[in-house]
Write a structure and sequence with these properties.
about 260 residues; alpha/beta; Rossmann fold; 4-stranded parallel β-sheet; 3-stranded antiparallel β-sheet; 12 helices; about 40% helix; about 10% strand
Length: about 260
């Protein structure tokens, strides 16, 4: 019931047991084509899954997310087994992978995947440590742009990704996962780097528009051309590609070190 959940299932080797995915699932395969060929069922949108379609598949296990709370309650009351993944840190993502491994009888594969991801992360952090970085770059990550700006607070795996990649989230003191902040506050905090997703969010992210925002020409990231567009499909999914997310962020923050 979430793209990241699907990725975990395939990454631990139980993809052949997956019978339904959301219409947003694009990795590791083209599931829309699978569905057209009759080899996969689309259960609806990420936030609007169809309970009747899910029930028609008679699944042994449903892997959900907090945004699915209402249909999950209905499915549980109907007797279906549901686990909900809601990691708020990188460690939380790895724990979820292990839990899904246990739930699907793929403990060994899950353990191997977690070890591989940890090895990748350790290599990145070690490289930053060896570079003797004296001042870590401050980072603003934008999720949504509207009358206010949505970003990531401390209980959020993306904030932890920034930390693991050697950055400092300027809104790490926020206690909400997805806080809304003002333009003035962002300007005042003056991030060294601005990260924006290529997709998700409002769909209007582009460097030129951000540079044109009133007062943003005073931000270091704007003055120094350090607005980096991240792969939204990769960056905003708490799944088995978490090591790749950290690697991509480290490259954005330390381009000379991770070229």
């Amino acid at each position: 019931m979430a793209p990241s959940n699907t990725q975990i299932l395939f990454a631990i080797g139980v993809g052949n047991k997956v019978v339904g995915v959301t219409s947003y699932d694009q990795h590791p395969y083209n599931f829309t084509a699978w569905a057209a060929a009759g080899n996969m069922t689309i259960i609806g949108g990420f936030s609007t899954p169809n309970k009747e379609v899910i029930a028609s598949l008679n699944p042994d296990l449903i892997v959900g997310a907090p945004i699915n709370d209402v249909p999950i309650a209905a499915l549980r009351s109907s007797g279906y087994k549901v686990i909900v993944l809601n990691p708020t840190s990188v460690v939380g993502v790895l724990k979820d992978i292990s839990m899904v491994g246990t739930a699907t009888g793929a403990d060994d594969n899950a353990t191997a995947l977690v070890n591989s991801i940890n090895s990748q992360i350790n290599g990145i952090t070690a490289k930053i440590a060896a570079a003797n970085v004296t001042a870590k770059p401050t980072v603003y990550y934008e999720v949504w742009a509207g009358t206010s700006y949505m970003t990531v607070g401390q209980p959020n795996f993306i904030s932890d990704v920034i930390t693991k990649a050697g950055g400092v989230n300027i809104f790490a003191t926020e206690t909400q996962q997805w806080p809304s902040v003002s333009s003035e506050t962002i300007v005042q905090k003056n991030p060294d780097v601005i990260l924006i997703p290529s997709s998700m969010g409002s769909g209007v992210f582009n460097v030129t528009a951000i540079k044109a925002r009133p007062g943003w020409n005073m931000i270091n990231a704007v003055k120094n051309n350090r607005i980096v567009v991240m792969d939204g499909d990769l960056f905003q999914e708490a799944g088995p590609r978490i090591g790749e997310q950290i690697a991509a962020t480290a490259k954005a923050l330390y381009p000379d070190l991770f070229n």
